[in-house]
UniProtKB/TrEMBL annotation, chain A:
Domain of life per record: Eukaryota
GO biological process, one term: tRNA wobble adenosine to inosine editing
SUPFAM superfamilies per UniProt: Cytidine deaminase-like
Keywords, alphabetical: Hydrolase, Metal-binding, Zinc
GO CC terms of this entry: cytoplasm; nucleus
CDD domains from the UniProt entry: nucleoside_deaminase
Name of the featured protein: CMP/dCMP-type deaminase domain-containing protein
Location of the CMP/dCMP-type deaminase domain: 1-110
The keyword Zinc is assigned to this record: yes
Zinc is among the record's keywords: yes
Gene3D superfamilies associated with the record: Cytidine Deaminase, domain 2 (3.40.140.10)
GO terms, molecular function: tRNA-specific adenosine-34 deaminase activity; zinc ion binding
TrEMBL record, chain B:
Superkingdom as given in the UniProt entry: Eukaryota
Gene Ontology molecular functions: tRNA-specific adenosine-34 deaminase activity
BP terms from Gene Ontology: tRNA processing
Domain CMP/dCMP-type deaminase, residue spans: 163-294
Protein name: CMP/dCMP-type deaminase domain-containing protein
Lineage, highest ranks first: Eukaryota, Metazoa, Ecdysozoa, Nematoda, Chromadorea
Keywords assigned: tRNA processing
Protein family membership: Belongs to the cytidine and deoxycytidylate deaminase family. ADAT3 subfamily.
Family matches, as PROSITE patterns: CYT_DCMP_DEAMINASES_2
């Protein structure tokens, strides 16, 4: 398995241990890890503190040139949400590698895409390379979260079609 | 965090709006009267076509004419159930009873056989009926002319569909909040009370809306918050967001994550995703939170060479 993706998963596991949505990411420039982040929404109270944003907010303190940013590669355990994906198109990074699709908010292809954002930049995308591992972490998180939630009663109605 | 406050705005050469605001209400550098009177001010909701249309799609149904009133009970027992997607339709209209949709051929054949077995005088006909449950009062007006249908009025929707969606008091609050938005900025307010604001910053991805959300989070985490607010609010739940520029996908999704209730913007952005003709992120069915979106037009203040503006500043 790719070493950068391995780092991203380590960060996702760390997020899970801290009661955060288990998503982690690494930014790579010329083969070297130059930034990393994991979800920090609950601790910060900031709903935009997704792994990618956390990493960028740390990284932007250094003066990366536009040329360098255009060579960035993002390794992230889950397909970036619409907010983070649109951010990557604005930055104009080179490549995104993600572990599993994000059906609820995915901004690369699941729900949003560059056409919807009016983005012209092309990003090379490699998807679903570790889907089971990424989804497994999310399942653990939601199981923990729902452990104390009341069981939902669902009315099951017979469906009538013609 | 570096802020652009104090920096000149290329389009109209104004100075820091935060400083100036203390003295007079302004909008993009133009002075406005503190009251709404005299200002030609329109707030246009950006809604899905299924709500703005006056008509609903129609579908063909077989009906059977009831030639003897006392046979209705017998007929009802014999007729097939109406398919789920057409459950909004009432069964009977002026001596006619719905049998089934014309496209359900086998269902009709079966029903016909059973009905004929009753040995009653029967007459079949095809009629057009509303294929969807009407969502608005005006759609209901159209639909009920075709065939009786159920309808549940949604006051929130009826309100924004009206010519004057906001009454004087609410208009005044919207205009006042809009006038408090920093240049190129964003303001988050709970009614009249502003909770957080921001312009866009100088660093990468420091767009106004995202920065305002972060400022709100900082405020909500602070001790001052628990003292000043006598309620516990989850992010921007129930809050209105005011923006000079239509938000880009990043900002619009940030506002979804923040659970904003309504979003008001003044100028369309070249990278915007909410205005008509753009994506309409706020109407995307896959997304689990939806805020209402309004374009605010204020006469005499919109002529501002803003045509090529982006969310996130001037590219
Ligand atoms: Zn995200
Ligand atoms: Zn933006």
């Amino acid at each position: 398995m790719n070493e950068h993706m391995e780092t991203a998963f380590k960060l996702a596991e760390e997020a899970l241990k801290n009661d955060e949505v288990p998503v982690g990411c690494v930014f790579v420039c010329d083969g070297v890890q130059v930034g990393q982040g994991r979800n920090e929404v609950n601790a910060s109270g900031d709903p935009t503190a997704h792994a990618e944003m956390v990493a960028i907010r740390e990284m932007r303190k250094h003066n990366w040139s536009e040329k360098e940013i255009h060579t960035f590669e993002l390794f992230v355990t889950l397909e970036p949400c619409i907010m983070c994906a649109a951010a990557m198109y604005e930055l104009g990074i080179k490549r995104i590698v993600y572990g599993a699709a994000n059906q609820r908010f995915g901004g690369i292809e699941s729900v949003g895409n560059k056409e919807k954002y009016g983005a012209e930049h092309e990003i090379e995308v490699n998807s679903l390379i570790e889907a089971n591992r990424a989804i497994g972490l999310l399942k653990q998180f939601y199981e923990l979260e729902n452990a104390n939630a009341p069981e939902q009663k669902r009315k099951i109605k017979k469906k009538r079609n013609c | 965090m570096l802020k652009r406050c104090g920096e000149r705005d290329d389009s109209n050469g104004e100075e820091c709006p935060a400083k100036r605001r203390e003295f007079e209400p302004t909008l993009n550098g133009h002075r406005i009267a503190p009251s709404v009177s005299g200002i030609n001010f329109r707030v246009l909701p950006i809604l899905p076509a299924e709500l703005t249309t006056f008509e609903v799609p129609l579908v063909q149904f077989y009906v059977v004419h009831v030639l003897q009133l006392q046979t209705i009970g017998q007929l009802i027992k014999t007729l097939p159930d109406i398919p789920d997607e057409f459950r909004h339709l009432k069964r009977i209209k002026k001596g006619m009873m719905l049998v089934c949709p014309v496209h359900c051929e086998s269902l009709f054949e079966e029903a016909k056989k059973k009905l004929l077995g009753l040995n009653l005088p029967l007459e079949f006909q095809i009629v057009e009926v509303p294929a969807k449950k009407p969502l608005t009062e005006r759609q209901f007006e159209f639909a009920k002319e075709k065939w009786p249908t159920s309808f549940h009025s949604m006051p929130e929707i009826e309100k924004v569909l009206a010519d004057q969606p906001f009454d004087g008091d609410e208009s005044r609050i919207i205009l006042a909040n809009m006038s408090k938005v920093p240049s190129n900025g964003c303001l988050i307010a709970d009614g009249e009370r502003s909770l957080a604001e921001s312009t866009h910053g100088t660093m990468l991805l420091e767009h106004a809306a995202l920065e305002a959300i972060r400022n709100l989070a900082k405020y909500q985490q602070s001790e001052a918050y628990s003292v000043e607010e006598n309620r516990f609010a989850y992010l921007a739940t129930g809050c209105d967001v005011f923006l000079e520029q239509e938000p880009c996908a990043m900002c619009a999704m940030g506002l979804v994550h923040a659970r904003a209730k309504r979003v008001f913007f003044r100028n369309r952005s070249s990278n915007g995703v909410l205005a008509s003709g753009n994506w309409h992120l706020h109407l995307e069915p896959a997304i689990n939170h939806h805020y209402q979106v309004f374009e605010v037009k204020i006469d005499n203040f919109d002529v501002n060479a803003n045509a090529s503006r982006h969310c996130g500043g001037i590219l």
